[in-house]
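User: I've been trying to design a sequence by hand for this structure and keep getting stuck. Would you show me what you'd pick, starting by listing the structure so we're on the same page?

Assistant: Good idea, let's start from the same input. This is the structure you sent:
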């Protein structure tokens, strides 16, 4: 299958552009996660050890981290709210007890007014507690935001390989080799099921380390163009391509599976659009793989790379890669 010319998204498809903007922020990180994990992702963990697997690492980007951080933020807020309530209660009881003692249990309107003024004079301490609560809440929210922004960088790296095929719905009706952004949630689910949690986290960790290094080398700035063309990024994406391709021992059956999982998570089309809405069919799956696996065939034609893959994966797996490289190139 030959790769056709690039096409950018149509300017008129504001709804799709807005949706993508919520998915990936300007620095390339994913800002929204969509879709649920399939049971297949669980079964992926029970498979034999992968010969291409990198050494395991202490991961900061596990899928439950955002939820944990959000919980920690909520706990921090609750703790400070309770502390504020305790201070208010303590101050009130203290002043009330003193006044009742001084007046032998008989309080007049004047006594209550005096007690209120004294309470007001001690509000500085209460204000300090309140400001600490606000600061803690702000820091907790920022920690969550930063952690989420640091996540899903691997997805951004891989989507770059086929994002030139994204087009608006009107263009898609004329150029079926292009793709709709509405498929992104299904694509992400597909990758999760193929890789499983642990391996996906491993790729995320490697990508994050690369980006952190490039940012440090550039004095704190990050140009994603530098990320995409870096040798380490190409190595990461090639390993991912091999991971994907090796699961295509039965290409047609796998294409049917891809079509089902992507369409089951497809963002609904705008009701105002004319014509039949785009769907992810077998042809779309082939075009996606043509771009997604664009580094596989050159790797298989490189004697050194081929030999290394053969040593790690064996002859049978190498034959599967050859078949996939020929089909989607």
């Amino acid at each position: 299958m030959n790769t056709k010319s690039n096409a950018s998204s149509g300017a008129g498809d504001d709804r799709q552009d807005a949706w993508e903007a919520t998915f990936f922020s300007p620095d390339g990180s994913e800002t929204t996660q969509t879709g649920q994990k399939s049971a297949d992702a669980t079964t992926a963990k029970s498979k034999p050890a992968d010969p291409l697997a990198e050494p395991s690492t202490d991961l900061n980007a596990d899928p439950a981290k955002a939820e944990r951080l959000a919980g920690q933020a909520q706990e921090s807020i609750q703790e400070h709210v309770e502390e504020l309530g305790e201070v208010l209660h303590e101050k009130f009881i203290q002043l009330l007890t003193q006044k009742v003692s001084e007046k032998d249990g008989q309080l007049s309107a004047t006594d209550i007014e005096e007690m209120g003024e004294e309470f007001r004079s001690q509000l500085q301490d209460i204000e300090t507690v309140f400001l600490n609560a606000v600061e803690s809440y702000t820091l907790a929210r920022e920690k969550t935001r930063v952690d989420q922004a640091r996540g899903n960088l691997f997805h951004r790296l891989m989507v770059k390989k086929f994002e030139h095929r994204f087009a608006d719905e009107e263009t898609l009706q004329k150029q079926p080799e292009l793709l709709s952004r509405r498929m992104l949630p299904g694509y992400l689910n597909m990758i999760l099921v193929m890789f499983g949690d642990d391996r996906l986290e491993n790729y995320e960790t490697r990508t994050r380390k690369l980006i952190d290094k490039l940012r440090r080398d550039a004095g704190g700035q990050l140009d994603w163009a530098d990320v995409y063309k870096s040798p380490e990024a190409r190595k990461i994406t090639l390993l991912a391509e091999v991971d994907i391709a090796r699961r295509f021992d039965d290409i047609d059956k796998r294409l049917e599976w891809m079509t089902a999982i992507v369409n089951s998570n497809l963002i609904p089309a705008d009701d105002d659009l004319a014509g039949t809405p785009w769907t992810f069919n077998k042809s779309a799956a082939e075009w996606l793989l043509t771009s997604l696996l664009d580094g596989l065939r050159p790797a298989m034609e490189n004697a050194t790379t081929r030999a290394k893959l053969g040593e790690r994966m064996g002859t049978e797996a190498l034959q599967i890669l050859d078949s996939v490289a020929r089909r989607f190139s």
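That's my pick for every position. To get oriented when you compare it with your attempt: Residues 65-102 form the longest helix (38 residues). The chain has two domains: 68-146, 152-327.
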